[in-house]
Structure formats: structure tokens, C-alpha cells
Write a structure and sequence with these properties.
- This protein is an alpha/beta fold and 263 residues long.
- The chain has two domains: 9-203, 2-enoyl-CoA Hydratase, Chain A, domain 1 (Alpha-Beta Complex), CATH 3.90.226.10; 207-253, Lyase 2-enoyl-coa Hydratase, Chain  A, domain 2.
- It contains twelve helices and ten strands.
- The strands form two sheets. A six-stranded mixed sheet has the order 1-2-3-5-7-10, sandwiched between helices. Strands 4-6-8-9 form a four-stranded mixed sheet.
- α1 links the parallel β2 and β3.
- α6 crosses α7.
- It binds octanoyl-coenzyme A.
């Protein structure tokens, strides 16, 4: 979004209202480690409070979205290091605190923590040959950034159990067929362009309504249907206090294009 320099990311604004974050640690296939995650979190937080940005696309390279958590960084950790410092907790900031939508455009390897990072995003797009997997079992551990929960919810228990217990990879086409990906594209370029198109559409809407949509859909993952519908209705009521609700409905009545606030 700005002229800032990044060590492990490339950040740009290729469309109006749309930020593109590209993970850029090519020598290690974008393996995720603390300095990269810190930079990612800072950038996402800045974009979240930047009124000119409405949605973000997160991608990697053609070769790798991210080949997992950095195994070399983890190798010598003790239980006290991991538990004491709540290792990985801060890696979920994308899901836990970011309120504007983030779309992942997954090409190449998305393994372990890479697959988990992609699944933390609000919408997952990929190209046919993307290579997903939770291979932690092969390293003597288990998924640590939500993989066992998010993959299971997305594709069902039996399939997720098979993948997590065998460490077998799956393709972008399979991710789409099983409902993990919202769309699958023929090529990496088309995948990133498709994600930017969707982000541009979202960025054209009321920011407050977009945040509310994201919040209520995410709540469906935590609440039962009755509580979820009740929560949705309360947030819906709340939007009648926003300027954008008046702007949107007035524009419809007058057959005009709405000019949203930038709040
Ligand atoms: N960690 C550290 N370095 C890595 C990683 C990684 N996960 N993946 C690749 N690299 C490095 C390689 O060591 C290699 O470095 P160098 O050139 O210095 O030897 C470089 O990237 C290129 O890799 P390869 O030569 O292996 O490239 P190939 O094209 O032959 O193979 C693979 C690509 C198949 C992706 C292969 O690199 C591989 O199997 N990587 C490891 C995949 C893996 O097991 N990932 C899961 C890690 S465990 C995990 O993520 C736990 C989740 C915890 C939560 C995370 C929160 C977000």
C-alpha cells in the first residue's frame, strides 16, 4: 500500500481498494517463520485500519504459497519454549483480529502451516496444480495452526482424518471438488487475477457492511443455528445505525449508484 520496504513480503495495490500481499522468501519456498509472520501481521493490521483498502489478496509464488512452518526454526524447540511462549498463537492473527476480508490465492505448495494459513483466509482460491497437505505426521508432530479443525470442517471428518494420518498431499482440483476452495483456476496467473477481481468487487461495497458479513459468517463456525441466527439478526439491526444503510437504500430508491462512506 505504501513505499515501505519489506524483507519477506511484496505489498502492492494493483486495483482500487485492493491490497496484494505476496509472501516472498523464495530460498525456503516461503517457509513460515517468526520474522515473516511478524511482518505479515503488522502489514495486515495496517491495511485493516487504512480507509483506502477494502480487501486483501494473500498469495505466494507459482512454486509455493508456503511450504509449511520453518522446520529448521522448530527443530530445537523444547516443550517449555513451545508451550511457554505459546508458539504459533500469534500466527492466527489473520483469523483472530483482522476484520476486512482476506482472500488466499494458492499456487504451488501449501503444506502444513502453509495450508493452515490459506485456510485461515476468508475465501480460498487455488490453481488446479496447487499442492495442499498436512504432512506433520511425517515429522512426528501434528497440525498446529488449526489444520485439524479447519480442514475437518471444510471437507468432512473421514477425508480429513485420512489426509492428516497419512500426510498425503491433495491437488487444487481436489481442494475445489471437496469444497475447501471456492474456485479453482487453470493457471497461477488466472488464480491471482480471479482473487483480485473478487477483492475488487468486495472493496466496492460498504466497509461496515463487509465487516459485518465477515463477522456473521465466521460466527456460524462457532455457534449453533439458533444462536447464530439470533446473532446475525442483532448485527443486522445494528446496521440501521450506519450511514451506509441509508446511502444504499436511498440509492436503490432513486435508481442511482451508492457512494459509500469510507468508514
Ligand atoms: N522449512 C524450512 N525449509 C524449507 C521448508 C520448510 N517447511 N520447505 C522447504 N524448505 C527449504 C528446503 O530446505 C530447501 O532449502 P535449501 O535449498 O537450503 O536446501 C528449499 O526450501 C527448497 O526446498 P527443496 O529443495 O526441498 O525443494 P523441492 O522442490 O525439492 O521440494 C517440497 C519441495 C516437497 C515442498 C519440500 O521442500 C518439502 O517437503 N518441504 C517440507 C514440507 C513440510 O513438511 N511442511 C510442513 C512443515 S510442519 C508445519 O508446517 C507445522 C505446522 C505448524 C503450524 C504453522 C502455523 C502457520
Amino acid at each position: 500500500a505504501t513505499e515501505k520496504t519489506y524483507e519477506y513480503l511484496k505489498v502492492s495495490t494493483p486495483r482500487t481498494g485492493v491490497a496484494l500481499i505476496q509472501l516472498h522468501r523464495p530460498k525456503a519456498l516461503n517457509a513460515l517463520f517468526t520474522p515473516l509472520i511478524r511482518e505479515l501481521n503488522t502489514t495486515l493490521r495496517e491495511l485493516d485500519s487504512d480507509p483506502s483498502v477494502g480487501a486483501t489478496v494473500l498469495t505466494g509464488s507459482e512454486k509455493a504459497f508456503a511450504a509449511g512452518a520453518d522446520i529448521l526454526e522448530m527443530r530445537d524447540k523444547s516443550f517449555a519454549d513451545a508451550y511457554g511462549n505459546d508458539f504459533i498463537e500469534s500466527w492466527s492473527e489473520l483469523y483472530n483480529t483482522i476484520r476486512k476480508p482476506v482472500i488466499s490465492a494458492v499456487n504451488g505448495h501449501a503444506l502444513g502451516g502453509g495450508c493452515e494459513l490459506a485456510m485461515m483466509c476468508d475465501i480460498l482460491y487455488c490453481s488446479q496444480k496447487a499442492n495442499f497437505g498436512q504432512p506433520e505426521i511425517k515429522l512426528g508432530v501434528i497440525p498446529g495452526a488449526g489444520g485439524s479443525q479447519r480442514l475437518t470442517r471444510a471437507i468432512g471428518k473421514s477425508r480429513a482424518m485420512e489426509l492428516i494420518l497419512t500426510g498425503k498431499n491433495f491437488s487444487g482440483q481436489e481442494a475445489y471438488d471437496w469444497g475447501l476452495a471456492a474456485r479453482v483456476f487453470e493457471t497461477p496467473e488466472k488464480c491471482v487475477e480471479g482473487a483480485l477481481d473478487t477483492a475488487e468487487t468486495i472493496a466496492g461495497y460498504s466497509k461496515i457492511a463487509v465487516k459485518a458479513c465477515k463477522e456473521v459468517v465466521n460466527k456460524s463456525q462457532d455457534l449453533g443455528i439458533k444462536e447464530g441466527v439470533e446473532f446475525e439478526r442483532r448485527v443486522f439491526h445494528g446496521l440501521f445505525g450506519s450511514e451506509d444503510q441509508k446511502i444504499g437504500m436511498e440509492a436503490f430508491a432513486e435508481k442511482k449508484k451508492p457512494e459509500w462512506t469510507h468508514r
